[in-house]
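dumping this here so i dont lose it again. seq + smiles for zinc ion
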Amino acid sequence: MVPMAVGLNAEYYRLAAETAVLHVQRCDGCGAHRHPPRVSCATCGSDVWAWVPTGMRGEIWSWTVTHRITDPAFLAEGAFAIVVVELAEGVRVVGNTIGIPHEDLRIGLPVRIVLDRRSDTTALIDVVPD
Ligand SMILES: [Zn+2]
């Protein structure tokens, strides 16, 4: 399954698929990175910005483990963990964990982003130990 992204979110997923690097917005007015994508800067109000590559590294900021699977497409996978990662750039992204036992999840755990290319227009975020 892939997200049905539109607008700036579609650009975010397409850039990830095309470049194999996670990009976020950086304000040309004040230099602040931001995510999720939006038209103007919450810090200075500027609507001039650019997509910039991230270093794809950060720390777990929060997580949740889902045990109740409601979508039949995910029944075979069992419980899964979704994490919020604070990247070195200061923005937070959401991803699926790969290779991190649920009992090892903790705030501040160093992690790396790996992009899972699903189509020409979409790559999903996987999070692995760093
Ligand atoms: Zn700004």
